[in-house]
Amino acid sequence: MKKNKSTDTRIQGTGADKWRVQESHVDMTAEFTAPLPATMQTEKQSLTFDVRRSALIVIDMQNDFCAGGGWTDQSGYDFIPDRKPIEPLKNLLPVTREASIPVIWLNWGNRPDLLNMAPNQMHIFNPSGQGIGLGDPLSGKDAHVLQKDSWSAAVVDELEQKPEDIRVDKHRISGFWDTPLDSILKNLGVRTIFFAGVNTDQCVMCTLQDASFLGYGCVLISDCCGTTSPDYCVDATVFNVREFFGFVSDSKKLIQSLQN
């Protein structure tokens, strides 16, 4: 007896790019979603972006950088400047979620065995070999520096993460190196990325720069970024983003554009 071919349709893929598959047919055409434009002011120009093709990336807002007793604190640096983004992010995150803009938490997360870390990278963060380096235990904490799934690598308590948010671990200053970030953004159909987090002149800058090279529209949300570096490092970062890699604005202007 001849078997009847099924006409059931199965959806394969996630985000914006999906195939519709039947036993005898595959439809790869993309479903068109009309743009949802919003306009905000940046330091140089007004900017219209597509809300439906945007994402907010929050970088390294983790205990090791932003909390008392974390790595920055125990290394003898003032961690308070890294807490600067917390309050503006608490205002921005609900608005971006309400607009259905994906929130991506891009966090440093070493393997416990450090097999994803090269010696030159470990040297950067402990150049004398005498300090507290990546993977070392923290005093008074049941945690090792920036170890994935530990207190050290966790997002600070003040910033609420939602189940629908997306989490990506990184182990370099750029979040695009050896991570699935680019694949996730492409599957979501993202073309514009808003950047927040720490440190402005390091992980935020390098990730934004790589995003620019990959063809994304990049917007640095300056009041949602912080760094323990000197002010001239921030000035240079803002200048380079504004002149070469994208746009610079702030959370109030982004919120206003999404609520209009």
What report would you give on this structure?
The model has no long low-confidence stretch (mean pLDDT 95). Helix 3 (86-98) runs parallel beside helix 8 and helix 6 runs parallel beside helix 7. The chain folds into two domains: 1-32, no CATH class; 33-259, Isochorismatase-like (Rossmann fold), CATH 3.40.50. The protein has a six-stranded parallel β-sheet, with helices on both faces. With 260 residues, it is α/β, with parallel strands linked by helices. It has helices at 63-66, 71-74, 86-98, 119-124, 181-188, 200-213, 231-245, 251-259, and strands at residues 10-12, 19-22, 25-27, 37-41, 46-50, 54-59, 103-108, 166-170, 192-198, 217-226, 247-249. The protein is 28% helix and 22% strand. The radius of gyration is 21 Å and the shape is globular.
